[in-house]
Structures are given as structure tokens and as C-alpha cells.
Write a structure and sequence with these properties.
The protein contains 14 helices and 12 strands. Strands 2-1-3-4-5-11 form a 6-stranded parallel β-sheet, with helices on both faces. Helix 6 runs parallel beside helix 14, helix 7 runs parallel beside helix 8 and helix 11 crosses helix 12. The longest helix has 19 residues. The N terminus is likely disordered.
Length: 352
């Protein structure tokens, strides 16, 4: 009796014989080609299923010029990527969308200049059909490396050059209404009668942090600049910023933090300092990451952005762009999808 683990893989010729068609017909059907009548397509698909035929990806790539793989490039060290729920949610959305299209996800992380060069070489090597890039910082070399590699790309978050200042090629991105969400959060704090409202900002070399700071300033037009402290989107950063703010303004009565993790860190410092939330200090975060926002004490009022949906849309826009390219330049009419900015919503819980 033959061992199924060592049995030879079904060949294209075996599928052709089972379906009663030519090898060329099977190749066109398997590789998504046109010109095959529907009855023959069904016979080939049935034969493929019966025999358990799996196309040779290397041979298929020669025909289709597609690798069915997409690089996901995160411009952060792995210590942050694997501890911040934001990245898990975005990766889950990307993975779900790619899986629907039978496409593989290749995760690339960057921590230093050597990593940037490695990622650039990998993308230029023709291993993937496109790239999804997020968490970029100001003056990050990645965009230049990606452009040099000629890889179709969709960005997570509005890049700082999205106005076209880095060239004529359109930039496609998916973002949330960071500024509008921040405005809504600060207006809510003001509506509660809070007058000394502080802001814990994210890293200000990222557009999301800048946009949320701008939203805060849109409402707090005459706020003391010392009410703003820049942190790093981490719980520890929120703790450090909150201690600094309490040292400057012991009587502050509200805080808007640029993400939920920093808000959770700020909450710990407030409790340790004997400040009741929300009675003494009202607190609002940003993201609505449920593993964080619903488990703080009290549960966190926050601005919701659909992080998983952002990931899905990034992948969807990239795949749609690849389908439209058809071998032509991405800048041709109809070849490049439009960027998307998703709305945000204030989710009211017990902290404000």
C-alpha cells in the first residue's frame, strides 16, 4: 500500500487527462486566463478538486507575473508591534482581506537603518506584488526605498507628503478623521464644565499625533502651552506625561490622551495621586481598543476608530489597484484607487 505522504503530486497533465481537455486549457483556467468556455472551466475545476492539484507557484508567477503575496511593513521595533493591540487589530484586518483573495502576508519590521536597507532589498527583489506600510515617522527612509523598488503601495495613515510634495505620483492611504475625533473629545470635556484641559500627545513626528494635537488646539484656542506634553503612544509614556502635568498643574480637571494606552497609563498615575476619575479629573483616550478601554477602572471614554476595518481597506485598495493595473503604469486613468478617511465616534463610558 502506497504512503500518501510520499505519493507524487498531481500534475497539470493529470488534470488535463481527468478533465478531457488540453494541457494549455488547464493552464489558462488555473492561472486565471480568458478564452475558455464555461463548461470546460467547470470540468477543469472539478478535476483539480478531485485530484487535489496545487499549482506550482513559481511556474504560475512566470505566466501571471503575480506572486500572490503582499508585504506588510511596520516602521516600528518588534517590541512595540507585539505589545500594542493597535497593530494586532490592523494586522487582523489585513490578514482577513488577503485571505479572501488567497494572498499571503509577509510581515517586515524595521528598527534601524540596517533593517530599512534589508526591507528595500527584499521589495526590490520582486518577491511580492505590493506593500502595505504603516506607522511611518517623519524623514523615514522607507518611502524612498519603496519608490525605488517600484512596488505598488498603500499607506496606513496620511503620510506627511500626501499633498504631493514628494513627487507627482499619487499617494494612496487609509486614515481616520484624527483631527475631527480629537475636537469632539475636547468639546465633550468642555461641555462637562472642565476648564483646565490637558493633552498628552503622541510622537509628533507622526501625522496622527499632529492631527490630534491640532484638534485639541481647535477647541482650546487660548490654552497654556504647558498643558501639552508629548509622549510616545505607550502606557509608560502616558504615566510620565501625567506626572509632568500634575507637577505643573495640580488643579487640572481634564485630560485628553492621544491613544488609549497613554490614557491607561495616565489613569494609574491619577489614582496613585489620589485623584478621582471622573469626579476630580475627566479622562478621554483615542482608538477604542476594547482590551484596554473596557478593562480600565473606570472604563475609558474614548474616540473610536475602526482599526481592523482600516487594515481591511488598505489591503482591499492595494488588491484593487493591482487588478486595475493590467500591466500598465499605476498613474494611468482608473489605475489608482482613491484614499479613504474613515469617520470617528466618541464612545462615552465612565471616565468622562
Amino acid at each position: 500500500m502506497s504512503d500518501p505522504t510520499t505519493a507524487p503530486r498531481p500534475t497539470l497533465e493529470a488534470v488535463a487527462a481527468r478533465a478531457g481537455v488540453s494541457r494549455a486549457t488547464v493552464s489558462r483556467v488555473v492561472n486565471g486566463g480568458d478564452g475558455v468556455r464555461e463548461p470546460l472551466v467547470e470540468r477543469v475545476r472539478q478535476a483539480v478538486e478531485e485530484l487535489g492539484y496545487v499549482p506550482n507557484q513559481a511556474a504560475r508567477s512566470l505566466v501571471t507575473r503575480r506572486h500572490d503575496a503582499v508585504a506588510v511593513v511596520i516602521a516600528e521595533p518588534e517590541t512595540r508591534v507585539f505589545t500594542d493591540p493597535f497593530f494586532a487589530l490592523q494586522l487582523r484586518g489585513i490578514s482577513k482581506e488577503l485571505t479572501l483573495h488567497d494572498c499571503q502576508l509577509v510581515l517586515l519590521l524595521t528598527e534601524g537603518r540596517d533593517d530599512h536597507a534589508r526591507v528595500g532589498r527584499y521589495l526590490a527583489g520582486g518577491h511580492v506584488d505590493g506593500a502595505l506600510v504603516f506607522s511611518l515617522h517623519l524623514d523615514d527612509p522607507l518611502p524612498g526605498l519603496i519608490r525605488g523598488a517600484g512596488v505598488p503601495t498603500v499607506f496606513g495613515g496620511r503620510p506627511c507628503w500626501a499633498d504631493g510634495s514628494r513627487g507627482t505620483a499619487p499617494t494612496v492611504y487609509v486614515d481616520s478623521d484624527n483631527r475631527g475625533g480629537a475636537r469632539e473629545a475636547v468639546r465633550h470635556l468642555a461641555s462637562l464644565g472642565r476648564t483646565r484641559i490637558a493633552h498628552i500627545a503622541g510622537v509628533l513626528d507622526q501625522t496622527s499625533a499632529v492631527d490630534r494635537l491640532d484638534g485639541y488646539r481647535d477647541v482650546m484656542l487660548d490654552a497654556d502651552p504647558r498643558l501639552i506634553v508629548e509622549a510616545d503612544f505607550t502606557p509608560a509614556g502616558g504615566e510620565r506625561a501625567m506626572r509632568e502635568l500634575l507637577g505643573r498643574f495640580p488643579d487640572l480637571d481634564a485630560v485628553f490622551a492621544a491613544n488609549d494606552l497613554m490614557a491607561a497609563g495616565a489613569l494609574r498615575v491619577l489614582r496613585a495621586a489620589g485623584r478621582r476619575v471622573p469626579e476630580d479629573v475627566a479622562l478621554i483616550g483615542f482608538d477604542d481598543m476594547l482590551p484596554v478601554a473596557e478593562q480600565t477602572d473606570p472604563p475609558l471614554t474614548t474616540v473610536r476608530q475602526d482599526i481592523e476595518q482600516m487594515g481591511r481597506l488598505m489591503a482591499r485598495l492595494l488588491l484593487r489597484g493591482l487588478e486595475r493595473r493590467g500591466g500598465e503604469a499605476a498613474g494611468t486613468p482608473g489605475g489608482t484607487p482613491s484614499s479613504v478617511v474613515l469617520p470617528t465616534t466618541l464612545v462615552r463610558r465612565a471616565s468622562a
